[in-house]
Amino acid sequence: MPSEHAQHAERPADAAHPPVSAETPYLELLARGASADAYEQPVLLARAEGRPAAWTAALERAKPLALRVRAELEGRRRREAELSALFETAHDLAGLRDLDAVLQAIVQRARSLLGTDVAYLSLNDPERGDTYMRVTEGSVAARFQQLRLGMGEGLGGLVAQTARPYVTDDYFKDDRFQHTRTIDTGVRDEGLVAILGVPLMLGHHVIGVLFAADRRARVFEREQIALLGSFAALAAAAIDTANLLTETRSALAELERANEIIQDRSGVIERASDVHDRLAELVLRGGGVQDVAAAVSEVLDGTVEFAEAALAPAAALEASRADGHAVRHGDDWIAAVAAGGELLGALVLRGHPGLDPVDQRTLERAATVTSLLLLARRSAAEAEQRVRGELLDDLLDARDRDPRVLRERATRLHADLDAVHVVLAARLESDTADAHQEADARRRLAAAASHLAATRHGLAAARDGGTVLLLPLGSGDTATGLARRAARDLGTAVHAPVTVGASAPAGNLAQHPDAVATAYGEARRCLDALRLLGRSGDGADAEDFGFLGLLLAGDRDIHGFVDRTIGQVVAYDRRRGTDLLRTLDAYFACGMSPARTKDELHVHVNTVAQRLERVGRLLGDDWQSPARALEIQLALRLNRLAAPERR
Asked: What's the average model confidence in pLDDT over 296-320?
């Protein structure tokens, strides 16, 4: 009598069982992100199985298309990483505090994305008439890091002279540029072979060169040259911003000195002093941008409005930003509102073509105050992130047990402690031995976690060398799914693997704040288990570990484990009145021998085989693998122990 499986295999294709197309194996390869070599397997397998020539030809036609799709996906992932790095660098420029730190970040990201051994940046020194190393990343030779060389020497000199990128596959065999003993000795000490250099431009002037170099022969692709050029543009912008900040501070100091000299002047000066006082008062009492515009409108006897950068006249706005003064635009005046090189908007004085120098300075000062208010608003957002961390710290430490206070604090942060939440423990998988790089990576992880928590209406805090997040569980979502998305999103943000362990869902946290600490402990155990099992960079909760989840979970969900492991068999027996569970018990008790099992059950060996085949359909083809078999045996025993409770 043929088995049910054999009968099914002989059934012709119909609407419920459509034939497999030649593209299917390649789609599966694309879905799991297989290597390019794996795309040879479908054709080889078809030939080995003696499949029809038409089928093999269809596979041959589908293969190059699948490889093109794979290449396109790889290219898009690479471009996404590049754009993310450029965005982070632009963000660094927006909050420019330390020029050296920004330049170091630019060089680090350039080296990482291009995958080179070394990256470095040199700047021209007009006073000494030479150029010098400003920032290096990956360099090991002290002499190389301290190089100073004359203008026009070396590959950097060629880049500076032509204001164009240059690349050499083998530095010491390239005679397009001037070799000197000093440069060649430094390059030889560092062991560099292939070097790419792009100019740092301010307007039409080269102020330095950004390099990426390898200690082996290498051909740099056009996309890599363009990417390094983008980083060079950002580096030049950072240097320009720092110079502008210095000039702005000097200008402000000169204005203050001038203000002291002209205090005694008549009505116009008094009006300038009055607006200064009013603007200062506005800042002190927490006024907004519109309050500044209204105050200046009254002082200047006109209409002053704040306009977003995209809505202001582009040419006049750029001229004001570059010059640092208000500029006339028809019958209006435009004063750029900028901070740290970032253009935030403009103050526009409407219908007031005649403006004396003091009134012009008043408008410019109002623009400066407006930029300070906008920066203060941004700082307030950063402070909100800190407050989110403090609330989560209080929940973890159970210091504040008043549910009303907890709810009020959460509501101000747009979080709902009455919703079902999952606690996530995240840790960066960094292999660097540099303490500063490690600390920087952890700061980036904390920042990424704070951003993720804010967008998901949750909480985040740095803790135990990693980060802990409290995120609401969406409808139809699972703790494991939430952990895996968090691992992916955080890893993308910090450009390094991030492992995330999740707790079981927990609710009513305001009434039971100690549940957060309990859930965090469970999430930490899942995180440790992931790392011990070699699953770094992944995310999971206790249920994802099978019977190990019973040990990891804070609340031992025995019924849930049994249901997940053999629930389909239990349900089948209940519906059909069969003895699959009893057969499984006997099968494992008899050392997984069908012959001994049929004696134990007093049935024919074919009956045992048919029952085990049915078990395989219910539990999956791998149910007899060592790991699955161990889980099934444990679930069978727990089911027997729990049977009296269910009765």
From this structure: 81
The structure tokens 């022969």 sit at 217
Q: What are the backbone angles phi and psi of residue 207, rounded to the nearest 5°?
A: -110, -5
β pairing state of 342-350 and 332-339: antiparallel
Considering Cα of 28, then 30, then 34, then 36, what sign does the dihedral take? positive
Per-residue model confidence (pLDDT) at position 546: 55
Question: What's the rounded mean pLDDT across residues 421-443?
Answer: 80
Find how far residue 539's CA is from the centre of its chain.
Answer: 15
Measuring CA to CA, how many Å separate 35 from each of 64, 116, 261, 346, 459? 14, 22, 74, 52, 38
Q: Which residue has the tokens 């306009």?
A: 307
CA distance 585 to 573: 14
Pairing label, strands 205-214, 118-125: antiparallel
Mention every residue, 6+ apart, whose C-beta is less than 8 A from residue 418. 407, 507, 508, 509, 510
Positive or negative: CA dihedral 311, 315, 320, 326? negative
Give residue-wise pLDDT tens across range 180-208.
Answer: 998 999 999 999 999 999 999 988 889 99
Burial of 320: CB neighbours in 10 Å, binned 0-12, 13-18, 19+: buried
41: how many CB neighbours lie within 10 A of its CB? 13
Q: What are phi and psi of 135, to 5 degrees?
A: -140, 135
**Backbone φ/ψ region at 115: left (φ over 0), alpha (ψ -120 to 50), beta:** left
pLDDT in tens, 144-185: 989 888 888 888 888 988 889 999 999 999 988 889 998 999
CA dist 29 to 34, 47, 176, 535, Å? 5, 18, 46, 21
Q: Compute the distance between CA of residue 401 and CA of residue 535 in angstroms, rounded to an integer.
A: 37
Residue ranges in 99-203 assigned as alpha helix (H): 99-114, 142-145, 154-162, 181-190
Nearest to 210 by CA among 95, 89, 366: 89
On whether the CB atoms of residues 483 and 502 are closer than 8 A, the answer is yes
Q: Which of 36, 212, 6 is nearest to 114 (CA)?
A: 212
**Tokens 């907890």 belong to which residue?**
406
